[in-house]
Amino acid sequence: MSDVTRWWWVRHAPVVPAYMGRLYGQDDVPCDTSDAESMKVLSGLLPRDAVWITTHLSRTQATARAIADAGAPIPEPIVVRDFAEQYFGEWQGMTWDEMEAWNAPAYHEFWKDPWSNSPPGGESFADVVTRTKQAIGELTANHRGRDIVAIAHGGTIRAAMAVALDLAGAPGFSFRFDNLGLTRIDHMKGGTLRGRSGGLHGGNWRVAAVNVPAR
């Protein structure tokens, strides 16, 4: 068994235009999988004989099906709820202008420290990192030495990078992840470095690719 577990992260296809410009978070909104060329490219880039993962939100599942339809034979994906997008509570479905107009003090307080602060009724990004880290650790242990393809969300992939690079606060928001972009992070058993958050990161990780466009 290999001691290297390769995580292939793909952000889901773009949501349909009616939801663009809104903070949909964990709302289950539809996506547009009509970009056949990008789906075909991804089907060629992603490894065969991999473990596939989606979240419970339909936009990740629809994206996985579209990649499979483009030529990638995939198993039934494992549904991992802990890889869902950040939950924005009472702001879900609002535009940024609507959020500010609805509760300006809460809006401005949140943006002082979006890593640690939570939207009204929602979760902080630090919470997203915590649940993402736990799920990554469990899945890496269960599928050691395998390729793992995770069709997920921009926030989830950003959290995975924060885990791998031991980032917190503003540096944790330094990466952009486009729809259908591919990011690969490898976990190596036996790394020795430890950082502020403990667990799987630092010397255990190497970043092989970040936000590679599908075309």
Fill in the keyword field for this structure.
215 residues; alpha/beta; Rossmann fold; 6 helices
Task: Provide structural commentary.
It is a single chain. The chain is α/β, with parallel strands linked by helices and 215 residues long. It has helices spanning 36-45, 58-69, 96-102, 104-112, 125-142, 154-165, and strands at residues 4-11, 51-54, 78-79, 147-152, 182-188, 205-212. It has one domain: Phosphoglycerate mutase-like (Rossmann fold), CATH 3.40.50.1240. It contains six helices and six strands, in the order E-H-E-H-E-H-H-H-E-H-E-E. Helix 2 (58-69) links the parallel strand 2 and strand 3. Helix 3 (96-102) crosses helix 4 and helix 5 (125-142) crosses helix 6. The longest helix is centred in the middle third of the chain and has 18 residues, at 125-142. The radius of gyration is 17 Å and the shape is globular. The two termini are 33 Å apart.
- Listing every helix as H and every strand as E from the N terminus to the C terminus, the arrangement reads EHEHEHHHEHEE
Average pLDDT reading = 92
Query: What count of domains describes the coordinates?
Result: 1
Net shape? globular
Q: Stretches where pLDDT falls below 50 for ≥5 residues?
A: 192-202
Query: What is the third-level CATH name, the topology?
Result: Rossmann fold
N-to-C span: 33 Å
Provide a count of the helices: 6
Give the helix level as a range of percent: 25-40%
For the record, the CATH class is Alpha Beta
Q: Strand percentage, roughly?
A: 15-25%
Gyration radius (Cα, Å) is: 17 Å
Largest sheet: number of strands, sense, barrel closure: 6 strands, mixed
The beta-strand count equals: 6
Strand order of the largest sheet: 3-2-4-1-5-6
CATH superfamily: Phosphoglycerate mutase-like
CATH architecture: 3-Layer(aba) Sandwich
